[in-house]
Amino acid sequence: MLEIFQFEFMQNAVFAGLLASITCGVIGTLVVVNRIVFISGGIAHAAYGGIGIAFYFKLPYMVGTLGFSLLVSIIMAVVTLKDRHHSDTVIGVLWAMGMAFGILLLDLSPGYNVDLMSYLFGSILAVPRSDLWYMLGLSLVIIFLTAFFYNDFLAMSYDEEFARIRGVHVTPLYFLLLAMIAVSVVMVIRVVGLILVIALLTIPPFIAEKYSNSIWKMMIFASILGSIFTITGLLISYWFDITSGASIIMVAGTGFFLSLISGKIMDAARRREA
């Protein structure tokens, strides 16, 4: 089994998967505890507009997608802070328009021949070595910012009003969080694709939340779970010659339902003991 790791494309895929898993473990934890999964999904799908911009203007993929995703995250932050009652509708519109904008730009791109499936469902086996350096840099920035503002994120996540009383600048911190989500989405697109990115952001933290008594432990556990899901899914996709992104999410989804079942069994056992 280990002989498959002698190939450079498999080595790149493993490193990309580990970096994406660590980033999703950290940011996904903040997404879950702040209950902003729908916002994260909106950013993820609207990011397709950035892919269209990158191809239409012949920009590097990372530059176009990251720039557009950050812009969308800022708009969503403004909307959710100013008008929470209608924010779901606006996010849904941005979600749809972002994807439509990207598709139209790809249609208009001269000499366009990109594989849509690779961005919708991921192409981890095709990640080049150059992208790994971008991913490593973005991961380090996200980890540093999370560690630096950890106490502020902790206060905002559990009680926003209490955080304001403590002097935490909640509004700029919220903008920063959505920007970090946008960066994470751009990283994970190459691994599992736009359609499935939200699953990798939320499934490992959701499972980890049940077995963690602090946010930082939840981040670590979620990162470990994400790494296990990613590597297992990657190996399965290689052995059976199936889409890697979908395989990774199926493994994560299986882990999700197993955690639900085990939780029910443990609760039943506790009730019998009581």
Blueprint of the fold:
Blueprint lengths: L7 H26 L3 H10 L1 H9 L4 H22 L4 H22 L7 H5 L8 H20 L1 H9 L1 H6 L4 H23 L4 H13 L5 H26 L3 H30 L1
Helix pairs in contact: 1-7, 1-10, 1-11, 1-12, 2-4, 2-5, 2-10, 3-4, 3-5, 4-5, 4-10, 7-10, 11-12, 11-13, 12-13
Q: Would you kindly provide a written description of the structure presented here, covering whatever features stand out?
A:
The protein is mainly alpha-helical and 274 residues long. The protein has one domain: ABC transporter involved in vitamin B12 uptake, BtuC (Orthogonal Bundle). It is 81% helix and 0% strand. It has 13 helices and no strands. It has helices spanning 8-33, 37-46, 48-56, 61-82, 87-108, 116-120, 129-148, 150-158, 160-165, 170-192, 197-209, 215-240, 244-273. Helix 1 packs parallel to helix 7, helix 1 packs across helix 11 (197-209) and helix 7 (129-148) runs antiparallel to helix 10. The radius of gyration is 19 Å and the shape is globular. The model has no long low-confidence stretch (mean pLDDT 88).
Give structural attributes.
274 residues, mainly alpha, ABC transporter involved in vitamin B12 uptake, BtuC
Could you say what the CATH architecture is? Orthogonal Bundle
Structural category is mainly alpha
Low-pLDDT segments, ≥5 res: none
Please write the string of helix (H) and strand (E) elements.
HHHHHHHHHHHHH
Helix content: over 70%
Averaged pLDDT, please?
A: 88
Tell me how many strands there are. Answer: 0
Global geometry: globular
- In what range is the share of β-strand residues? under 5%
